[in-house]
Each structure stands twice: as structure tokens, then as C-alpha cells.
Amino acid sequence: MISKLLIANRGEIALRIIRACRELGVKTTAVYSEADEQSLHVQLADEAICIGPALASESYLRQDRILAAAELADVDAIHPGYGFLSENAAFAEKCEACNIRFVGPKHQSIRQMGHKSTARALAQKIGVPIIPGSDGPVDSPEAAVSIAQKIGFPVIVKAAAGGGGKGMRVAHNAVSLQRDLLIAQAEAQKSFGNAEVYIEKYIEEPRHIEIQILADSHGKRIHLGERDCSVQRRHQKLIEEAPSPFLTEDLRQKMGQAALKVAHAVDYENAGTVEFLVDKNGDFFFIEMNTRIQVEHGVTEEVTGVDLVKEQILIASGLHLEYDQSDIRILRHAIECRVCAEDPARDFAPSPGLITLYTVPGGHGIRVDSHIYAGYRVPPYYDSMISKIIATGRNRTVALDRMYRALSECLIHGIKTTIPFSRAIFQDPVFREGRATTGYIQDFMSRVRL
Ligand code: ADP
Question: Catalytic: which of 207, 292, 338, 396?
């Protein structure tokens, strides 16, 4: 069993990992940048080591410094959380070489799934449906147009090494496609250090539905049902829920089996998520696999009762998964709302700064995963998400009403947040009726004045 673990992350996910470790009796080492000295993860871990200046490229992304900290602290495992180094196959490989367990899949699985166009090819090979598009990366505007003419416009150009909704462009005709290809390649190079892009048919108004997987190192793999993450702004998730208001039991089973097939094909171990788009007819298509814990994992925890982060640590310790597929029952409804330090009135511009007052929502069925407190200064250097509120109820309506109530009692003064925007969504009939697709936020913003 892992006895001491280093958390190579910050913010709410660092706290989430500390909590799981405490309950398991695992000692924790936090790492932090100079900008995060006052952070809760630094205060709550058993020990903390500063790994550099504020910029992530000088701290949370510095593999050498994190591995040096791990040596210094004499830990036997590293949990990467999400973002930063969590899907970096080379880092996972280095951990292994240093005899430190990486809490995640084997580096080979990360590598296979990290390149989205290769992952697509693999899904196709094993008979999991993919969206019509290019076979592998596309490098010239002429090749892009020829593929688009074959599959039909509109098409979406996506970065092969992409993530976080960045580097995607929708093209409606050959002229814009030629331009978008070049822009997407430049963006991909800048953001991900890899200019490769590929093309998919653009599905109109799909739902984003993903399946949570758990797999131990002894070959046992189960899925924990779906999360519906269709409410997105610029391809970034805002609200996630389980179960999906759209899925039938039949479709749930089929998608669960398809996700397990993907996990099986890459000999997957630990927690992971297989993402799909589902069209109006209920046809589903693989888009990618995230080989790490996801921001929205708490929704699945609330409806299944399974502590995913604890399971990750137990699996990395080499223990057998205690759950069978038949143990996973979804008996409640849970919904998560991401709270970001952004100003909805100024096109969601980042709003870092000092939090002067903070009231934490609570009461029956409310869980808040957050690293903020009154007196905390939100730094401008990292992701703007400052809190995740999760509401759970015996059905969707109860969960939605509970979330609206929780958002109303969450006061954060000193900075602007997305709470007023989210409150309006929870009152919107289209969302309440479970009709939101990935085009929902754009439509909502054109209809509703905030
Ligand atoms: P990332 O890794 O950046 O999150 P994904 O491939 O997971 O990128 O896609 C993110 C979101 O972009 C999807 O949830 C969906 O809203 C949109 N998207 C991606 N591919 C398509 C497509 N072929 N058609 C329509 N929307 C798409």
C-alpha cells in the first residue's frame, strides 16, 4: 500500500486528493509555486515544498523539480490530478523509472490516447463508432478540402494533441476551411507544442456524454455510468450531471460496453473517462479518452457512492477493485456547477483578486469542493475555476432546485464570478426540461439578458 504521496497539482483537486489520503491513512506532500504559498493545499498537506515561481511552466509543469521534491520527501507515489502533467506520458514514464508510482494508467496507455487522431483510429479498429473524418492528421489545405467535400460541410478542425476545448475551428465552406486549417495548426503548435490537426464532420447540436471507467492492475474493468456535459461555453464544460436526461437504459448499456472496449484495447488501468458525442437520433461516436481523474468526477461519486480518488490510490497500490459491475447502481441524480473567477458581463474576462467575503453553501444534498476562503487572493496565473458545487437529490428536479438554492446562498465578494450566470441557467426552461445540447449556451445567451 502507498504510504506517502506527493500531489503534483494545486487548487481544489489538490485538496480533494489530500482528503482521500487522510481517509486512507496516506501521508501527503504538497508542492506549490511562490504564488500559492497561502493556498489551502499547502496548509492542509502533511508537508509542502515550494517548486518555483508563479508561472506553471516554472513550477507545476517542471518535471525535474517535482521529481526532486518527490525524492526529497521520499514519497512512494505521485498523484497528478487533472491538467498540468496528468496526461504527460513522459512524466509517467519518468516516475516509473524513479520507482515512484504514478497514480494513473501506464505511460503506454496515456501515449496511445494522448494523440486524439491515433485514438480515433484505434476506436475504429475495434469497432467503436467514430465521427466521419480524416484518417490521421491533415497537413495541407487541399487535403482538408478534399476530405470535407467527401464527408460534407460543416466540418471541425481539431488539434491532435489538444485538450480543454482549445484549438478547434468549425468551417462551413472550402474558403473558410483553408484559412481555419492554417490558424488551427498555428494555435495547436502554440498551445500544445504539436501542430498536427485532424478533421471531423461537425455534428449539429450533439450531446456530450462520457463514461467513467475504473480498472485495476489485475484486469478487472467496470464502468460507473455516464455524465452529461453538454452545457459548455466555447467547448469548455460549465455544468455536468448524472444520469443524463437524454439517455435510455439501452443506450447507457451500449455506451458503457463501448467505453470498456476502448479501455480494454489500451490495457487501461486506474480511473479514466471515455468521451462520446451523441446525435439527435441517439447514435453515439467516440471523440477521446481522458486518461486521468476529471473535474466533474464528483457527480459520479454522488450517484454511485464510489470514492473515485480513493479507488485511484488503492488501484495504484496494486489492490483488487472491490466493486463488480453489478454493484454499480445509479439511484440518485447529481449535478455540478463550476464557479469561475470570471466576469460574465465582460465576456467572461478573468477576475482574479482578493476575496473579501465568502459564504459556503451547505445543507442537505450539497457538496462544495473548493480551495477558496475569505482573505484568499485568487492568483491570475492559473485556471479560473475556484469552486465546484454539487447538488444531489432523489430525482433531477430536486437536484436542480437544490442547486438554485445553493447558488443563491453562495456569496463571494471582492471578485466577479459566474454565479449569477449559472443561476439564470438553473431557471431556464430549456435547461430544466433536459433539452440542452452543446449549442445551448450560445442560444441561451442570445435569449436571456443578464
Ligand atoms: P477537448 O479535448 O479539447 O476537450 P473534445 O474532442 O473532447 O476536445 O471536444 C470538446 C467539445 O467540442 C465537445 O464536447 C463538443 O462540444 C465539441 N466537439 C468536438 N468535436 C465535435 C464534432 N465533431 N462535432 C460537433 N462538436 C464537436
Answer: 292
- Per-residue pLDDT of 342-377, as tens digits, reads 999 999 999 999 999 999 999 999 999 999 999 999
Atom 23 of ligand 1: nearest residue by CA position: 202
Q: Does residue 126 lie in a domain region?
A: no
Ligand 1 geometric centre to CA of 76 (Å): 36
Task: Give yes or no for residue 167 having a pLDDT over 80.
Answer: no
Ligand 1 atom nearest the C-alpha of 438 is: 16
Of the residues 201, 216, 245, the one at which a domain ends: 201
Q: Are residues 175 and 216 in the same domain?
A: no
CA distance 72 to 67: 9
Within 8 A by CB and 6+ apart from 326, the residues are none
- What 3-state DSSP class applies to 273? strand
pTM, entire model = 0.97
41 and 152, same structural domain? no
Confirm or reject: Cβ of 355 under 6 Å from ligand 1: no
Is the same domain home to 165 and 29? no
Residue 165 CB–ligand 1 contact under 6 Å: yes
Residue 22: active-site member: no
* pLDDT single digits (tens) 418-435: 999 999 999 999 999 999
Q: Which of 143, 177, 201 is the last residue of a domain?
A: 201
3-state SS record for 182-228: HHHHHHHHHHHCCCCEEEEECCCCCEEEEEEEEECCCCCEEEEEEEE
Name the domain count of the chain: 3
Domain range holding 9?
A: 4-103
Is the same domain home to 186 and 315? no
Asked if 119 and 160 touch (Cβ cutoff 8 Å), the reply is no
What are 211-243's pLDDT values in tens digits?
999 999 999 999 999 999 999 999 999 999 999
Ligand 1 pocket member 275 (CB < 6 A): yes
Is the beta carbon of 162 within 6 A of some atom in ligand 1?
Answer: yes
